DNA sequence: CACTCCCGCCAATTA
DNA sequence: TAATTGGCGGGAGTG
């Protein structure tokens, strides 16, 4: 009988760990198998393993003895134990054949082997850290539990923590969706922000823990009231729920996990002792903290800590105090997220610091189809919304998967920006104050000033970003000065392809994109909004966070996307975080640009940035890509630049030089979608012959001009950059985006009417720094806006010199929001950014900054109109 | 003995 | 009502 039962049970019964692994491979895990070192060793059986098989074997083998022992426990348990003997042993014990009791005992997996941490590792091993966006991995709790040979309860412990970090999300009843670490940095950033709100002050004093404790206590009291809801913005939902039904959710392991992580992120030392954490987390009744409660909390913290440890986010340490040594954990995960973005939603910069990131993976996460079924459960960081009255649902809404994604992008962009800034700042410091740039008139925008991010640590992009082109938009910094130039451009010259009927250049929306090319050097994307981007232009040089790049490249499409690349870490600079996203393109650059970096200190000459930006762009040019044409273009550009009165000499010089050196990358024009095309973005190659771009030609046979359509959504997040000429047809990257484009059907007719198009090989804008432009910018309201609502939201035009093209200034627009998703005003709003970036010294006034942004936005539209495309298209 | 934290009871939630 | 989730704390393993 027993046997029989067992057999039945078997399925359920957890298989031992070891065996499990094996089985697991075959089993469920969708993606990659765990790397795990599972040992195969043990099994006596040669057979193919399946979980069940193992069980059976075990059962048979174990038989009598085992049973007995186990009987006491439940069937399952015993079984496991017995099994373990087999498997676990592998680890520790060799396989001992005998079933002798003693042996058995020994075999019994030690406690460690059963630890939650180990279990978690096994769990994690089953899924890729950075799953491809396309694949959605679902996790079946039952399955996992059986595979890993543990009871479900344990799986819940793991999943709950992972869910709190958004590594997984619950899809349905026994099912979770695996997201991997794509969002991790964003999530952490959010937690950090939330943590600062809640615990910030406290942590400041961390050193003195005791003090802290007291403070915490007090704090708690204080904050709680309002915080109640708040505290967890991050947890928003949970909070809400908690508020409402305080019962379970409040205490939820998820929330505790988030709070625990917040403590680390807020802590300066990055070390949190368990007791403090427990006290803090007990929140509510802190006063009464009864011992038992405390103990319970600590137990939970251990559970959480084990999972976090498995994730490589923390490690155990000991803090010795007067009293003695206390258990504590140290944060060893990414810390940088730059910042402090205010924006609730999201933009966190994330640089994935994780080295391990897989290149292929796109940032995108998958969205679980089911969405949030349980609102309460989701822990979302919606932000600050007060959940109180409302309950979870409300809060949850905001988090549409979409938004989240976008947010991510934004955040990444932001990170880049931040990095860039930082870098810039550094450079600035290094460089004499009077960098050439300094000369440039600064619009007075504080905006331009770069702030160094204190902590930003950006890991180099590393492999992750393989190909992308970075959005250059950032570079757009130049903006204001360029205004005049811009105006010129406006006029329009957009040359069109004569043949093309539908091309128009209207005001609104043309952009040129430069494709960066292969160089790996730098690709950067600009983060956010164009303006900001401007500043950060340099940043572009810097390496964008891998993530960003990836995304950008992938999504965006930039044909130009270069091949891959790694970016030099050094380069990174921080950009602003604006919400916006934007641009596309990107050339990659060579590092060299350091010079560019040098900016006048705080001064903030945006112009400078621009220049630098150019340089960067130029430099990167991939030799390959550089084609004759490109060269020509460059030259022309240079000339033009030189000629331009407006441009500041310095910038020009730099640019020219670099340009000369660099080859160019393919450039594309980006057309904003206007009303008609709201959903599409067109990219045209400026210089190329129609055929050049594979996609374009293929997809749009009818058109003579090569162009690529990209869903606006894809582009939305990127800043646009223009570059005048470009030669190389490379578009290694484009794939995804293109493909997307391809999929879309579009009829020319539709396009023709509404869209403006653009074209030109080079856009000429004078890079001049003159203040005038700025004025102009401001003036115009949003002319463009009406055209494309989406775009309108945030557009700031920035001028740049085209990086590629040597001298040409380019205007950039920055779109804040992705078209597809409606943004809330908040999100759009740039205002907060300052805070993030601003560093004490370097940044100008935040206020000013904001102002600028606003101005820019307006300007952008105006700019667009004005934007003139000087270059003639070869076509 | 102090740390850790496994284990699984059993209540809250869901289906 | 049954199943799923998950809070909770006893108490065992470790050092």
Automatic annotation (TrEMBL):
InterPro entries: E2F, E2F_WHTH_DNA-bd_dom, WH-like_DNA-bd_sf, WH_DNA-bd_sf
Recorded superkingdom: Eukaryota
SUPFAM superfamilies: Winged helix' DNA-binding domain
Domain E2F/DP family winged-helix DNA-binding per the UniProt entry, residue ranges: 111-180, 248-333
Biased composition (Polar residues): 81-90, 392-401, 854-875
Pfam family, one: WHD_E2F_TDP
Family: Belongs to the E2F/DP family.
Listed name of the protein: Transcription factor E2F7
Organism encoding this protein: Pachyramphus minor
């Amino acid at each position: 009988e027993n046997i029989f039962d067992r057999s039945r049970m078997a399925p359920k019964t957890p298989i031992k760990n070891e065996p499990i692994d094996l089985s697991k491979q075959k089993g469920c895990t969708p993606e990659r198998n765990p790397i795990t070192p599972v040992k195969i060793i043990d099994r006596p059986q040669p057979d193919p393993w399946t979980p069940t098989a193992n069980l059976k074997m075990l059962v048979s083998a174990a038989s009598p003895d085992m049973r007995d022992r186990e009987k006491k426990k439940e069937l399952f348990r015993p079984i496991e134990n017995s099994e373990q003997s087999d498997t676990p042993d592998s680890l520790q014990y060799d396989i001992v054949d005998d079933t002798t009791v003693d042996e058995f005992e020994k075999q019994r997996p030690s406690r460690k082997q059963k630890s939650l941490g180990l279990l978690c590792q096994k769990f994690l091993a089953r899924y890729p850290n950075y799953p491809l966006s396309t694949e959605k991995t679902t996790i079946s709790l039952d399955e996992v539990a059986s595979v890993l040979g543990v009871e479900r309860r344990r799986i819940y412990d793991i999943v709950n923590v992972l869910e709190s970090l958004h590594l997984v999300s619950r899809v349905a009843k026994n099912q979770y969706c695996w997201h991997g670490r794509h969002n991790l940095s964003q999530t952490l950033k959010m937690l950090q922000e939330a943590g600062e709100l809640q615990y910030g002050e406290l942590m400041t004093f961390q050193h003195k823990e005791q003090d802290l404790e007291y403070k915490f206590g007090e704090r708690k009291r204080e904050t709680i009231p309002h915080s109640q809801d708040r505290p967890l913005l991050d947890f928003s939902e949970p909070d809400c729920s908690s508020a409402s039904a305080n019962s379970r959710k409040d205490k939820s392991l998820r929330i505790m996990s988030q709070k625990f992580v917040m403590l680390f992120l807020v802590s300066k030392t990055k070390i949190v002792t368990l007791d403090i954490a427990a006290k803090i987390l007990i929140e509510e009744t802190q006063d009464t903290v009864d011992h038992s409660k405390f103990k319970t909390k600590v137990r939970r913290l251990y559970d959480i800590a084990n999972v976090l440890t498995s994730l490589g986010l923390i490690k155990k340490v000991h803090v010795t105090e007067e009293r003695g040594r206390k258990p504590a954990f140290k944060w060893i995960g990414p810390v940088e997220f730059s910042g402090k973005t205010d924006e609730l939603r999201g933009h966190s910069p994330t640089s994935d610091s994780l080295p391990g990131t897989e290149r292929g993976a796109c940032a995108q996460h998958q969205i679980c189809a089911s969405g949030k079924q349980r609102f309460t459960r989701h822990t979302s960081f919606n932000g600050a919304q007060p959940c109180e009255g409302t309950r979870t649902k409300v809060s949850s809404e905001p988090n549409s998967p979409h938004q989240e994604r976008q947010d991510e992008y934004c955040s990444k962009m932001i990170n880049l920006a931040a990095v860039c800034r930082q870098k810039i700042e550094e450079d600035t410091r290094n460089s004499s104050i009077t960098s050439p740039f300094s000369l440039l008139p600064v619009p007075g925008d504080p905006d331009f000033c770069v702030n160094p991010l204190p902590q930003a640590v950006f890991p180099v992009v590393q492999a992750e970003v393989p190909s992308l082109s970075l959005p250059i938009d950032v570079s757009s910094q130049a903006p204001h000065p360029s205004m005049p130039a811009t105006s010129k451009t406006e006029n329009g010259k957009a040359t069109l392809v004569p043949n093309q009927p539908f091309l128009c250049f209207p005001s609104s929306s043309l952009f040129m994109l430069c494709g960066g090319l292969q160089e790996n050097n730098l690709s950067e994307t600009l983060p956010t909004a164009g303006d900001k981007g401007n500043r950060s232009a340099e940043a572009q040089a810097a390496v964008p966070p891998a993530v960003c790049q990836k995304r950008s490249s992938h999504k965006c499409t930039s044909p130009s996307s270069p091949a891959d690349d790694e970016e030099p870490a050094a380069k990174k600079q921080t950009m602003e975080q604006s919400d916006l996203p934007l641009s596309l393109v990107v050339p990659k650059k060579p590092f060299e640009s350091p010079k560019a970096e040098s900016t006048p200190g705080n001064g903030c000459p945006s112009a400078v940035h621009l220049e630098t930006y150019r340089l960067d762009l130029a430099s990167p040019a991939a030799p390959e890509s550089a084609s004759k044409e490109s060269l020509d273009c460059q030259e022309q550009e240079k000339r033009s630049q030189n000629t331009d009165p407006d441009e500041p000499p310095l910038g020009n010089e730099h640019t020219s030089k670099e340009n000369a050196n660099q080859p160019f990358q393919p450039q594309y024009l980006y057309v904003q979608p206007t009303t008609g095309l709201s959903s599409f973005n067109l990219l045209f190659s400026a210089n190329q012959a129609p055929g050049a771009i594979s996609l374009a030609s293929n997809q749009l046979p009818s058109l003579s001009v090569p162009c690529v359509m990209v869903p606006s959504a894809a582009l939305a997040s990127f800043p646009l950059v223009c570059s005048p000429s470009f030669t190389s047809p490379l578009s290694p990257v484009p794939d995804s985006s293109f493909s997307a484009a391809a999929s879309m059907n579009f009829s020319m007719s539709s396009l023709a009417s509404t869209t403006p198009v653009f074209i030109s090989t080079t856009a000429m804008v004078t890079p001049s720094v003159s203040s005038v432009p700025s004025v102009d910018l401001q003036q115009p309201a949003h002319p463009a806006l009406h055209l494309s609502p989406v775009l309108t939201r945030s557009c700031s035009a920035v001028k740049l010199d085209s990086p590629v093209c040597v001298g040409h200034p380019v205007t950039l627009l920055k779109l804040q929001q992705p078209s597809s998703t409606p943004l809330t005003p908040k999100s759009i709003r740039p205002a907060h950014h300052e805070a993030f970036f601003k560093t004490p010294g370097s940044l100008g006034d935040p206020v000013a900054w904001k102002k600028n942004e606003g101005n820019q936005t307006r300007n952008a539209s105006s700019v667009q109109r004005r934007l003139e495309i000087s270059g003639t298209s070869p076509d």
